[in-house]
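Re: the pair you flagged

First of the two:
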Amino acid sequence: MSANRLQQLKGHILPENKATAMGSPSPLTTHVLNTAMGVPGSQMALSLYRQDPSTNAWSLITSGATNDDGRCPGLITKQMFTPGVYKMHFDTAQYWESMGETSFYPYVEIVFTIIDPGQKYHVPLLLSRFSYSTYRGS
């Protein structure tokens, strides 16, 4: 079995919500799934923003890329996760271009409101070249 496949299996067996650098799991997680090909959306660049309620300006919290399992652990610490409006920006054009494909959507932005930061929020992105969907998971 290839090392890459073993890593994918490990990602499904171990908890997705790995500890962040601060030692506690992220209260916000995501998982990108390429539904057209039936595989995780790996190596997709993404950024997390919080909206300033007084100016409506977006402030970058973090940026990174999904791992081989389509996940991006450690998005935000519990201490930084406060009530407010958040946005996840996914660079879908770059993802599809890396596979020699084009996409109708150059990026996807998911905007959501956090009222109770004590809860865990999972915001997956299900994606094909011509469609996408999301939902609040657990």
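Second of the two:
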Amino acid sequence: MARWLRSLVGALLLLEGAAALSFLHHRYEEMVQALFRVQSQCPYVTRIYSIGRSVEGRHLYVLEFSDYPGIHEPLEPEFKYVGNMHGNEVLGRELLLQLSEFLCEEYRRGNERITHLIHDTRIHIMPSMNPDGYEVAAKQGPDSNGYLTGRNNANGVDLNRNFPDLNTFMYYSGEINGQNHHIPLPDNWKSQVEPETLAVIQWISSYNFVLSANLHGGAVVANYPYDKSQDQRFRSHRRTVNTPTPDDKLFQKLAKTYSYAHGWMHRGWNCGDYFADGITNGASWYSLSKGMQDFNYLYTNCFEITLELSCNKFPPEEDLERQWMANREALVAFIEEVHQGIKGMVSDENNNGIAGAVISVQGISHDITSGDMGDYFRLLLPGTYTVTASAEGYQPQTVTTTVGPAAPSLVHFQLKQDVVRKAPERKASGTRMNNKALQKKVVPRATRRGTQR
């Protein structure tokens, strides 16, 4: 009940003085202009950067919101939205442009909720991962657009089937109690992916993202990992196999946060399909190999879900305002979900941050690691947990902590050097931190069935 009350209060805050927005489809140049217009209107809390180029040379632009744009602040989580991965699924692209303008306008108006969100979170918004495909779809427009026209990139590749397949390795590794996180990429992976995919992999390797959503169209449901079934033998018979991650209950909660804040997703019946609570395990719907959602979970610290947002992949402009009103609260509420679980610093006895320290939670066979400055973020549901921090050359440290339903619990680790072995060289910020710095310190960091997801 308390969660729904907070959601209602948050929605009312967003309604106060909401700015009038333009509801139009944006071609590439218009999208770029819209992003730079937001940046010029909110120059002190935004930054635009490109993570690379598409096959046809279009920039893959990201708009960042933060009280210190371009800087990672220790203990401040990184969040991302990615839209238009399939070029003909355009609603996510337009919603993210609307969200960008909305965040800027509400920040300027002094909206307390949005101000706190921008000051306490580093938000990255990529409206289009597949700008080339979008241009193909947009030439036909919403009235005559084919179901697959513009879906793929300019090389004809489905970008959501183009990431390295880490699931197969993980399923085997699980059988032998092997590695369950940050699974290494195959040696020749770069030769097997498209430019857009390569850019995204390098991007998510450079930022310690904690939570993410990938916006699609063609259905209305919040989809969570795993997307790929452990048993692929039933694919031809359209059999489905629920394939949960070790964080299954958490992923269900994240998906429900979006579906119940959405105008109608939570009702279940949409587009001729029924999904209880408006959510589904990906493999339970249908098995998908080499997808971006599973890749985030298995290769990085990031927990990503896939949001299917409209029955019509290319809705007409007159439907955009209704779709924005249905998604606005959900888009904001989902970002707020990054602030849960536990977070803290992992340091040595001299208060130097330890990068790459492994954070393990007893009973959950999926670990995460600390970032370049030694800070870590572990999303967890409310409860009591036994947590261990370990790093090569140091003695592990284990603590028991209780996680509440609101803000994340602050749990720091200070590891002692292993006297048996000499500590090897490690990645570390080299920044000495006193107790005050553990609370918050600004330190520059290097730019570091019919529907198919």
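The first helix runs from residue 2 to 15.

-B.
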